[in-house]
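Thread: Newbie trying to understand structure tokens

Hi all, I'm a second-year student working on a class project, and my supervisor (Dr. K.) asked me to get a predicted structure for one chain before our next meeting. I've only ever worked with sequences, so writing a 3D structure as a token string is new to me. If someone could post the tokens and maybe explain what I'm looking at, I'd be very grateful. Here's the chain:
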Amino acid sequence: MNKKFDEEVKKKLREDVDVPECVDEGIKRAYDMIGISGERKVIRRRKRIWPAVAAVAALTAGLSITAAAVNYYLKVHLEEEGQVLKYYIEVDKEQKEAHQIEVNPTYLPKGFEAEQAEEGAPKKTYGTAEGDSISIISYNAAELYRMSQLEENVFAEYRKDSYSAVEGEQKLDLFTRKNEKVDSDREITDVYLFSEEEGYGVWIWSESSLEQEELVKIANGLEITVLEETVPYPSEAEIAEERQNDKDAAKKAEAEQEYRSSNGVSEELVYQVGEEVKDTTREMMAESYPDYLREVYLSEEEDIRFTVLSTAVSDTLPTDTFSQQYFTTDMENWMNEDTSLKAHQRYRLGEEEGQTTFDARADKEAETVNSKYVIVKMKAKNVSAFQTDLNKTVGVSIAPILTVMQEGEAGKLVYPQETFWSANEGYDLQWGAERGGSFPIYFDKPYFTEGIKGVKSRLFCPLAPGEEMEYTLVYVVDEDQLSNMYLHFYPQNEIEINGEYLTTPYVDISQ
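---
Reply by user tm_fold:
Sure, no problem. This is what the structure looks like when written as tokens:
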């Protein structure tokens, strides 16, 4: 080492250094890594430790400060691709084992309370009585490694104009998006912070009216604990298996979409009002069994059948006929004094627009529409000679999904090339089920009326062998879709066999 270099080092070492409070924590972490201390590592308000200390380290090693960071085993890049920003994650699993992460906020704005969550769960949610919500989700190095290998990023792509870099006690990436709900004063904000040296990421998701400064304060106040418990990185075999499963699922979804678009629903699966409907997949499945097992299979599979007795479209639901106690959802915000429905707003989206993406809805102009009630009188019957344990304890689903279909070629029904999404906050009267279908808002024969949990919903009832029940359901439908209404039965039983999708029946109730 030459004299000039030696004097420069001595000069740096003699300088008074204003050491940040987290240097002591850094020393403790270093002790932990070499086994001197068994205490867990707690990181609060992580500060950058660069100035004089880092300069000396870089100088004595003959490296630049940038190059000195190569020992960090997590790398997170936020890269620009056109008008989009996207995260890319790299994890060097050979450098360091992954540890479980525990994250707790030390600051929450007034009114926010914790919602119940499983102990040790990586997601913690906090909300207010007014409906504001914040979720704090943590990711350890093993989870980030899995994401990087599968190119499966939970962190969304963002438009450039939504991005803000917050420099301070720690660097935060903050993204703000327009709320898709046109009547909401809440913004959607995502805040991300990563520790490249400790190997974790934290995502704060907010749908609230909080100012950005409050969200930054929450992030800076996080107490992040690196636990002693380690987490195994997924093996190459596990990654390969997941990749294949993802490919198979995507291929299956694509094939199903293509099959449905080209084949639709055959005419024999479209029933009319007054006709008894049965689950056609039950007999089709039986055909796949050998002869000596077919009867056994059919005798062990319950046979629940339905008949749509009548349908009617109405502007109101007279209170002397339709009791308030039988509504399955809160109607207060959407019903006028005369029980007619208030107008609401919706998005109409085509497949080419990315039907389910948040940005597609938020960027689309919402349209205002009026709705009608559809009153459906039904009969359900258990024609089996027995009742399964599931039927006894949970019941059977007695409510078909009201969906929109269109006539295709050769009289077949096809799914429309557009779907609808609510543009109003708290609107759940329709378009809530898969493929834009709707569940009823009213059911006059509820069996489970107290302690309803999970599948024990108001739309399930036990049916004993030979038992039948008649009941009334009420749906809501936009008035411009009255000519496209169909009730879809047994949708949960649709299956694929050898590339062919077995569709369950529909009843035409179009007006």
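A couple of things are worth pointing out once you decode it. The chain has two domains: 74-230, 266-508. The chain has eleven helices and 31 strands. Feel free to ask follow-ups in this thread.
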